[in-house]
Amino acid sequence: MSIELPPLAEVLANSHVVRLPMRVKFRGITQREALLIKGPAGWGEFSAFVEYAPAEASRWLAAGIEAAYESFPEPLRATIPVNATLPAVAASEVGSVLEKYDAPHTIKIKVAEKGQSLQDDLARVAEARRLYPQAALRVDANMGWDIAQAVHALKALSDYDLQYAEQPVPGITGLAQVREQLRNAGITLKIAADEAVRKHTDPLEVSRLGAADLMVIKAQPLGGIAAVLDIAQQAELDVVISSALDSSVGLAQAAALASALPELPYACGLSTGTLFADDVCSEPLLATAGYLPVRRINPDSDKLKQLRPEQQRVDWWLHRVEQCYEQLANA
Ligand SMILES: O=C(O)CCC(=O)C1=CC=C[C@@H](O)[C@@H]1C(=O)O
Ligand SMILES: [Mg+2]
To answer: Based on the domain organization, do 184 and 67 belong to the same domain?
Structure first.
């Protein structure tokens, strides 16, 4: 990592575990756990998804430590354009989920959810298009299709005028194949890489191979602001900064990252605070008319108490910090 590691005992002593209830199921979860670190520069977040092993999760810890111990970069803009995120809900729920966002100009819609059909996706996207005729719509399949399914589904979904389709299939070459087959069929829908960037040993390979039109990049999974600014600078593709379903503390870091990028051609996926029923401060980082402010977040001490899970989960997270710290120390 780009900064020197603070002592482990200091990180552990300044850690606070929270569990945030969600308004709507997203990524299969209805409660989001996070460990927040208070440091000399402010608060940082470590909230690698619970199923991630230490090798992957340690990058998230590096990001949390960076936010707690380093100043945020000089912002080039005070607010960040953001998209509303629509989980894979039934078409009948699209209106009630989206009305929680203040006047969204861009909406990212989850598709290809396990157990659902293309008809479900088409109905969800059609309803979003009906309710928000002027909005830019994009879809995210989280690798849920194979190549033939992706080409078939995206041909049908492109009737709704999509801005881009994020990670329709697994892998890097898979993205390139879907893109090419769509182009051969006369469909110029842009393809975005997400998992092919953040879960790959070399986040720049997608760009080098020209396998996609743009890259989704996330502060925590890729190791923090400095690491992502470096990736973005080397990438030859446009980048979209997106959240890792962080609390307001992690979103503040991601917004600071987005504020430091010289170019921001697409709305960022940083409106996910709206998916939470509660957050770590009384004034969470939420968008107004599709723009998120760039500011540090200091959790409220009463919120930290209220949202603290049972001791067993606190211990689990502290142990995870130890494991990930060891990875970083030996890197
Ligand atoms: O980009 C957005 O609109 C919101 C963030 C988002 O979709 C995600 C956050 C965290 C985990 C991921 O599964 C998911 C994504 O795939 O982009
Ligand atoms: Mg994605």
So the answer is: no
Residue 2 falls inside a structural domain:
no
Instruction: Please identify which residue in the block is written with the tokens 């819609």.
Output: 109
205 marked as binding residue: no
CA-proximal residue: ligand 1, atom 3 (nearest) = 269
Same domain, 234 and 318: no
Distance separating alpha carbons of residues 143 and 111, to the nearest angstrom = 10
Ligand 1 pocket member 140 (CB < 6 A): yes
Q: What percentage of the chain carries pLDDT values higher than 70?
A: 99
In a domain, 192, yes or no: yes
List all residues 6 or more positions away from 124 whose beta carbon is below 8 Å from its beta carbon.
86, 88, 89, 90, 91, 94, 109, 111
pLDDT tens digit sequence for 89-112: 999 999 999 999 999 999 999 999
For residue 59, what is the domain's CATH number? 3.30.390.10
pLDDT at 1 over 80: no
Residue 248 falls inside a structural domain: yes
- CA nearest ligand 1 atom 11, residue: 244
Q: Is 279 annotated as a binding residue?
A: no
Who contacts 167 (Cβ-Cβ below 8 Å, separation ≥6)? Answer: 140, 141, 142, 143, 175, 192, 193, 194, 195, 196, 216
Nearest residue (by CA) to ligand 1, atom 13, is: 27
For ligand 2, the distance from its centroid to the CA atom of residue 130, given in whole angstroms, is 23
Same-domain status, 102 and 193: yes
Query: How far does residue 304's CA lie from ligand 1's centre (Å)?
Result: 24
**Assigned domain for 161 exists:** yes
Domain holding 222, by residue range, is: 79-299
Q: Please state the domain count of the chain.
A: 2
Q: Catalytic site residue 305?
A: no
Q: Report whether 33 belongs to an annotated binding site.
A: no
